[in-house]
Specification:
Layout: E1 2-6, H1 13-24, E2 28-30, H2 31-41, H3 44-54, H4 61-72, E3 81-84, H5 90-103, E4 109-114, H6 117-125, E5 127-130, E6 136-138, E7 157-158, H7 165-179, H8 181-188, E8 192-196, H9 201-212
Parallel strand pairs: 1-3, 1-4, 2-3, 4-8
Antiparallel strand pairs: 5-6, 5-7
C-alpha cells in the first residue's frame, strides 16, 4: 500500500501513522524524519536544508522534494509506505505523482482524518507540557492529579506557545489555505477516503484500518 495521510494539525496524524504503518507492515515516512536523517547524515541535501533552517527560512520545495524522492527509492519503501507531512500543497502532490510514475508505483489511497477546527483548538490548547521531563498532559482528556504539577516527576507544567489558542487558529488558517486544497485534488483523482478522527485513539485506528484494508495489495 502506498498511502498519504492528510488532516489538520491536532487531528492525530502522527499517532495514527504509527498504528496504520505497523498494521500494514509498511514504513512510516515523515518529512521531519527525512530532514533529520539528511542533516545528521551530512548529505548534500541535508547541508542545503540546514542552511535555510539556520537562517530561520522555510526549506524550498525543490530541496524537500529531492529528499522525499531519495527516501522513496530506498529498498524498504519498494513494497509500500505511509507518507505523513508530504505533500503539503497541490504543487508537491503533482511532484509526488511524477516521482511515483517514475518508480512505477502509483499512489494507492489518501486517508483524510476529518476533525472540526474548534475541536482541534480545544485539543491543542488544553495541552500542558512538563518543564522537567517533557511529558504532555491534557486539562480535559488526561489531567494531572494536581493542577500545574506533573504526576510523573513533580515538574512544573506550562502551555507551549504552539498550543496557545490564537497560535492554533493561525496554524489552522495556514492549513485551510495551503493544505486543504489537497483534499479536492485527491478527491478528483478518486484516491480520497475520509474518516471521522474524533473519539478514542483505538476507535479512530479501527476506522482507519477498516477504510484502508480494501486498498492493501
Amino acid at each position: 500500500m502506498r498511502l498519504v495521510l492528510v488532516g489538520p494539525p491536532g487531528a492525530g496524524k502522527g499517532t495514527q501513522a504509527e498504528f496504520i504503518a505497523a498494521n500494514f507492515g509498511i514504513p512510516k515516512i515523515s518529512t521531519g524524519d527525512i530532514f533529520r536523517a539528511n542533516v545528521s547524515g551530512g548529505t548534500e541535501l541535508g547541508r542545503m536544508a540546514k542552511k535555510y533552517m539556520d537562517a530561520g527560512d522555510l526549506v524550498p520545495d525543490e530541496v524537500t522534494n529531492a529528499m522525499v524522492r531519495d527516501r522513496l527509492a530506498e529498498p524498504d519503501a519498494a513494497d509500500g509506505f505511509l507518507l505523513d507531512g508530504f505533500p503539503r500543497n497541490v504543487a508537491q502532490a503533482e511532484v509526488l505523482n511524477g516521482m511515483l510514475d517514475e518508480l512505477g508505483s502509483p499512489l494507492s489511497v489518501v486517508l483524510d482524518l476529518e476533525v472540526d477546527f474548534e475541536e482541534v483548538v480545544k485539543r491543542l490548547s488544553g495541552r500542558r507540557t512538563c518543564k522537567k521531563c517533557g511529558h504532555v498532559w491534557h486539562l480535559e482528556f488526561d489531567p494531572p492529579s494536581t493542577g500545574g504539577v506533573c504526576d510523573k516527576c513533580g515538574g512544573e507544567l506550562y502551555q507551549r506557545d504552539d498550543d496557545q489558542p490564537g497560535t492554533v487558529r493561525r496554524r489552522l488558517e495556514v492549513y485551510a489555505d495551503q493544505t486543504a486544497p489537497l483534499i479536492d485534488f485527491y478527491r478528483n483523482e478518486d484516491r480520497l477516503v475520509a474518516i471521522d478522527a474524533l473519539g478514542a485513539v483505538e476507535d479512530v485506528t479501527e476506522r482507519a484500518i477498516a477504510a484502508l484494508t480494501p486498498f492493501a495489495d
